[in-house]
């Protein structure tokens, strides 16, 4: 069961003018499930994305990078679940482009204006013909108010769809931001199997949207980890349709940029944390707050060293306050001149370590009590500066092994 995560209510998800979504059954891997999503993007919209840094990236990622680099006008995205179309060579690229061509034909939009996304099993070929045959059903189903169904259609091992909406007023215009995401395992975005799509009706300049998607990714999806594995297919896309009527937002340093970015970031925070709450087999949600760093990057490195440690994660699952494992992870984070005597470690409100060792007042019973809840905060002070960062992760349970041992069945 996910950790304190309920399915989104369709009525809470706000339509984004300029965006329509359609869902269908393509039989990509399993029958009788909605596994194909087409998102129609209104003319004049702008699209930006960040993608996996795994060098063995999937065919759809290569196609997306190519089309966005050409600054083409993007008119739709197509997403299939079940098969990742990764590790499939030239045939994979041909299949990804064939699916795009089917969408382009069904929507009567220019060639090269569709971005493909896939998620699922690696090294299996995409059934492009079956997907193409289902595209007309997606197009016939296109609706503005289909965000909840879209979130469900892109799931793999997820147990709960992930979707959220927010609004903000900028220059007198009410701006809507709605997003969906999927992911539960192979999660360590480095821009898991993670896909995230956020749309807004704000008017945003092309380069500014590119800056915004990176800003948001670095503070949300790139701060979560379930198991430390960066997928071949990680993708996060931000769409701005420009339908809200606000003066176009141009420039990363402007007040308008900051207001919109914070609204988009709130949506991305909720979606990325939902991925961790729904992590495969997760029973606990853990926030790792690292402060007192010389740089934000070293704070992230420490946070991820803790979050990636199987020994730390299994201790959290068992509520076992074997907290020397956390200090070990801090020491292994690669900060050559870290002074252990200046490091502090708190579990919830309990000081565990300081001055290079166990805190004088700390007791084992305090540790057990702090590790019992379903949501836990770990705080690490590095004593090196003013920078900070937070990483979100979950525990490792027996079910994580079971889910991944049987993933292809």
What does this protein look like?
- It is built from eleven helices and 15 strands.
- 32% of the residues lie in helices and 24% in strands.
- It is an alpha+beta fold.
- The longest helix has 23 residues, at 255-277.
- A hairpin with a 2-residue loop joins strand 12 (350-354) and strand 13 (357-358).
- The protein has helices at 59-69, 89-107, 128-140, 147-153, 206-218, 255-277, 296-308, 310-318, 324-331, 364-371, 398-405; strands at residues 19-24, 36-41, 46-51, 76-83, 114-121, 162-170, 173-182, 195-200, 235-240, 285-293, 344-347, 350-354, 357-358, 375-381, 387-394.
- The radius of gyration is 22 Å and the shape is globular.
- Mean pLDDT is 92; it is low at 186-192.
- It has a six-stranded mixed beta sheet. It has a five-stranded mixed beta sheet with strand order 3-9-8-7-6, sandwiched between helices. A four-stranded mixed beta sheet has the order 1-2-4-5, with helices on both faces.
- It starts with 18 loop residues before the first strand and ends with a helix.
How would you concisely characterize the structure shown here?
This protein has eleven helices and 15 strands. The protein has 409 residues and is of the alpha+beta class.
């Amino acid at each position: 069961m996910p950790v304190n995560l309920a399915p989104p209510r369709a009525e809470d998800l706000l339509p984004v003018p300029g965006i329509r979504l359609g869902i269908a059954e393509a039989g990509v891997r399993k029958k009788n499930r909605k596994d194909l999503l087409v998102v129609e993007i209104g003319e004049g919209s702008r699209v930006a994305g960040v993608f996996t840094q795994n060098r063995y990236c999937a065919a759809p990622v290569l196609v997306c990078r190519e089309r966005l680099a050409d600054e083409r006008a993007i008119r739709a995205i197509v997403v299939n679940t079940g098969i990742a179309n990764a590790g499939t060579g030239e045939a994979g690229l041909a299949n990804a482009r064939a699916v795009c061509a089917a969408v382009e034909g069904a929507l009567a939009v220019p060639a090269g204006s569709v971005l493909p996304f896939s998620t699922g099993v690696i090294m299996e070929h995409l059934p492009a013909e079956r997907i193409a045959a289902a595209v007309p059903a997606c197009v016939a189903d296109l609706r503005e108010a289909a965000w909840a169904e879209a979130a469900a259609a892109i799931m793999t091992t997820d147990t709960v769809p992930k979707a959220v909406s927010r609004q903000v007023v900028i220059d007198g215009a009410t701006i809507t931001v709605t997003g969906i995401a999927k992911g539960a395992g192979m999660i360590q975005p480095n821009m898991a199997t993670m896909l995230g799509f956020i749309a807004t009706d704000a008017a945003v300049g092309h380069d500014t949207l590119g800056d915004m998607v990176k800003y948001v990714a670095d503070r949300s999806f790139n701060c979560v980890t379930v198991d430390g594995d960066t997928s071949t297919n990680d993708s996060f896309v931000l769409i701005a349709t420009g339908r809200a009527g606000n003066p176009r937002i141009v420039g990363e340093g402007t007040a308008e940029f900051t207001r919109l970015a914070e609204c988009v970031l709130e949506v991305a925070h909720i979606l990325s944390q939902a991925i961790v709450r729904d992590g495969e087999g997760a029973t606990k949600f853990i926030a790792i707050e690292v402060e007192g760093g010389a740089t934000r990057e070293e704070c992230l490195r420490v946070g991820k060293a803790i979050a990636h440690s199987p020994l730390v994660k299994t201790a959290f699952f068992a509520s076992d306050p074997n907290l020397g494992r956390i200090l070990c992870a801090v020491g292994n984070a690669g900060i050559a001149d870290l002074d252990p005597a200046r490091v502090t470690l708190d579990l919830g409100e309990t000081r565990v370590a300081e001055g290079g060792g166990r805190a004088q007042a700390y007791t084992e019973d305090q540790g057990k009590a702090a590790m019992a809840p379903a949501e836990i905060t770990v705080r690490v002070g590095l004593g090196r500066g003013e920078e900070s960062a937070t990483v979100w992760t979950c525990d490792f349970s027996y079910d994580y092994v079971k889910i991944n041992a049987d993933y292809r069945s």
